[in-house]
Amino acid sequence: MTQLAEHRTTPWRLPLQSPVGGRKEREGWHTHLVSMTGVEGIGEHAPWSPSPPAPCPIMLGAPVSLSTGDSAWDMAALDLISRERGVPAAAALCETPADRVAAHALVHDVASAVAAVADGFTLLKLKIGNLVPEELRRVELIAAAVPDAYLRLDVNGQWDPWDAHSYVRQLASPQIDWIEQPTAKPMDLRDLGVRIAWDESLRSEDWACALRVGDVAVIKPSWHGGPVTARIAGEAALSAGLDVCVTSVLGSAVDRWCALHTALSLHGEVSVGLAGPADAHIPEAERGFFTLPTTPGVCP
Q1: CATH number of 105's domain
Q2: What is the pLDDT of residue 282?
């Protein structure tokens, strides 16, 4: 039994590789749990708003379980328990984790798309806004520059529902893998020639509707209640016939490794997206795939 000897939090700040909403840096907190045997587990709290993590829900001397009720402390608990067991975190989440999982690369323009394909990626994620002619042209130029790649277009809920059907039809082509969170609220945009993925809606009161009218569920362990809760959500989506994409929240290496382990603990049509700020300890893809680490814990 793993018992808690110490807990603490430490702030972190890292430069973003590309500005997001005017921000050039990403910041958050790491949560630390130390066992009676001196083994340490690290989790992460990385909201976009500057709010500190919740107090540690585990009393000193109490046993540590994988479910603490808080995502940041759940990550730390997973790291701690898997290190004490001597297994990768994915193996603490399930008995038989996958050996590898396909990944997409976050791109912004033709140059970054071409570079990602040269690195072996065939799945590319591109954030887009309202489909004004310039934005449509940007998608077309990137698609033409990497004809053997598939584009995942993330709208972040910006489209007006009145325009959504028209926008989906304009974008539909065999090269578009899916359109993610096209509107703020889930709506049925299937059967328009392209798959629809839902992200933010799966973390709201609209989650059941999003599963019903979606083709893909985007799961973020950092914002989905932690790795255990995220895995349960992923299994539910797979059981409902959806594909699953597990992604980071542009956090530090802890956030990205946790997303990878969560994805590897799922079985079915699963992929990952691990974009984030510059960090020396991030996972590295090999020809568009991430493999199961052999070292114990979340971060090797």
Answers
A1: 3.20.20.120
A2: 84
